[in-house]
Amino acid sequence: MSRRFAFAAVSVLALSVTLIPATVATAAPAPMGVVVRASVPNFPGNLKAGSHGAAVTAVQKGLLAHGYKISGLTLASSRTKFGVLGAATMATIMRYKKAHNLGPSFAVGPKTYASITGWKANTGGSSGGGGTSGGSTGGTTARCGSYTGHTCKTTATGGRFCPTIGAYIGDGFGANRGSHSHQGVDLMSVKGRPIFAVEGGVVAGAKMQSNGALAITIKGQSGNVWYYGHQSVNLVSDGDTVKAGQLIGRVGDTGAPGAFHLHFEYRPGSPGDAWYHAVAVDPVPLIKKLCF
Ligand SMILES: [Zn+2]
Predict the structure, then answer these.
(1) How far is the CA of 254 from the centre of ligand 1 (A)?
(2) DSSP character at residue 42
(3) CATH architecture label of 142-291
(4) Distance 51 CA to ligand 1 centre (A)
(5) Cα angle vertex 97, ends 96, 101, to 5°?
(6) Which class would CATH give 20-117?
């Protein structure tokens, strides 16, 4: 491989990191240095689900030092377990923000960062942005109003609908779940937010699983299979015909996942195939297309 080709490959990789942070962060956690309280990293800009690096480690250690529990993480954890802002860390950040009146956005802005880590803006370079508004990166999320940074699009894209409104992208496809890898994406949300059929089809399963989670499987007209999990309520039943965009359930935490979210899977298939033969793929690119 020539040097030039190698450089091009690295550039493509860097681009994919920018586009799909949650997935890449899961696949390759950033190696972290030791964070000492006396040298909190400078605020790097709003931290969100999928952010990684030394500033995330500083937030995680700060939360633990303040006595806030993060599922799966303690101050004694190996340093390689720190540095990725996943669902558990975000759930703790939101508890901290609520207790300290730091706003409802699913992001760590400069005020929250300072409050948690003790960081003080000093040597210039301060972003000067609103401390708690979060998601001020503009671009495709700017039109989402109060749901900036969250799934927000209620109109169809190519006949398909975003599976839920008012959620942000948490743990991604392939995340290590011990005995298996994560087969979908976790759309972190609030109890009761609506869940919609991505496309029209027939409900192949609407039930409570053995772990207590309410789940819905829909075989779409295209043959694609759509799986929704952890609902607080299912609003469809086995064998129902559903339309694209139909309300089918509401966000919950059944099955005790630790945070309110929609577990969403996309399994491409063909109309003639049995629904259970379809294999899940990373749904994040589709979510970005349908929801923002
Ligand atoms: Zn999940």
Answers:
(1) 12
(2) P
(3) Distorted Sandwich (2.70)
(4) 18
(5) 125
(6) mainly alpha
